[in-house]
Amino acid sequence: MTLSELAFLFLKLGATAFGGPAAHIAMMEDEVVRRRRWLTHDEFLDLVGATNLIPGPNSTELAIHVGYRRAGWAGLLVAGACFIVPAMMIVLALAWAYVRFGRLPQAAGLLYGVKPVVIAVVVQALVGLARAAVKSRVLGVAGVAAVAATAAGVHELVVLFGVGLGAALVGWASGRRRGRPSPLCLVPLGSALTVTGAGAGAGAAAGTAFGLGPLFLFFLKVGSVLFGSGYVLLAFLRADLVTRWGWLTEGQLIDAVAVGQVTPGPLFTTATFIGYILGGLPGGLVATLGIFLPAFVFVAASGPLVPRLRRSPVAGAFLDGVNVASLALMAVVTWQLGRAALVDFSTVALALISGFVLIRFRVNSTWLVLGGAALGVLTRL
């Protein structure tokens, strides 16, 4: 495999991957596991679990992990950059239109057609990944418990580490019964790396006057410490940019988050939109660099640890638990997205037809998403 193949794949995904991290992960699984066979289901699951243990945008970090696994350090940079750049360019164009005309282009029709297709893509990926992840009855029960806890509002990190540590304890007890006690070489990646990242981002709140330096440091801090969904990102942005510093209005912030959701690629390109509003093209580029840079650092630091964790029986059991919990998080997000997306007969029919086409004809999910977008726009017109 050449770097050009890696670049082409992630440029394509960055330009067409609508629907948030769960959908991005599903599309990556379709491309790198089913079609290209670059990774096995188990290897892919390990990378999904690893991205959930570190702060930052999960789908972007997964792209970086895949690049590193396939082509080393060059692959790490190429895959990550190629996944980010298409979304960044689209958001910059929308930000220019927003500043020039004072409003956002209408995207309701686009999402009307895309969301049902995304539901079908994610459900298909979840079924395939679950078959590889649920290796025992204990992991099956753990997965059900993780779904229940997530649906009840328990924090994502509590679910991930709780299920992971529970699985590790079961693995340790099983090893002792076999007479093979295993060292518990678990590394809480999220905690260790967040401390490092938080130190790197310190000083972002040193002043309230706008400048490219403070803008970069603010988004560097956010990218270094942010776990959770896009709603957590919204809370960070509102607290500093709107309430504390007064750089943005409430309306501008809402528009920025909306742009991140209606465009393909990572939701963190919300930072690109905000940076452009505040500082033009230099501001957009600086904000993008700041919020995504920690993801490259965290993956570079944690990527080599994943094979080591898998080689240890106890640490491998921990990773198995995290993988099951990660799928539980995806399942709950898919349920929530489905309730918002399947709003009438047309959207339900589109989701069912997409699922049938995926299973029966194994059509590339990218074409289905583009087809759904076209149908949605035509329907609204």
Please sum up the structure shown.
It contains 16 helices and no strands.
Task: Looking at this protein, list some descriptive labels.
single chain; 381 residues; mainly alpha; 16 helices; 0% strand
Question: How would you describe this structure to a colleague?
Answer:
Helices cover 80% and strands 0% of the residues. The chain has helices spanning 3-16, 21-35, 41-52, 58-101, 108-133, 137-151, 156-177, 189-201, 212-225, 230-244, 250-262, 270-302, 305-311, 313-341, 345-361, 365-380. The relative contact order is 0.18. By secondary structure, the chain is mainly α. Mean pLDDT is 83; it is low at 181-207.
The shape, in one word, is: globular
**Share in β-strands:** under 5%
Distance between the termini: 43 Å
Instruction: Return Rg in Å.
Output: 21 Å
Major sheet summary line: none
Q: Which residues sit in consecutive blocks of at least 5 with pLDDT less than 50?
A: 181-207
Mean pLDDT over the residues: 83
- Estimated helix fraction: over 70%
| Helix/strand order, N-terminal first | HHHHHHHHHHHHHHHH
Based on secondary structure, the structural category is: mainly alpha
Give the oligomer, counting copies of the same chain as homo and different chains as hetero. Answer: single chain
Q: Can you count the helices?
A: 16
**How many β-strand runs?**
0
Explain the layout of strands and helices.
Layout: H1 3-16, H2 21-35, H3 41-52, H4 58-101, H5 108-133, H6 137-151, H7 156-177, H8 189-201, H9 212-225, H10 230-244, H11 250-262, H12 270-302, H13 305-311, H14 313-341, H15 345-361, H16 365-380
Helix pairs in contact: 1-4, 2-4, 2-5, 3-4, 3-14, 4-12, 5-14, 5-15, 5-16, 6-7, 6-14, 7-14, 8-9, 9-12, 11-12, 13-14
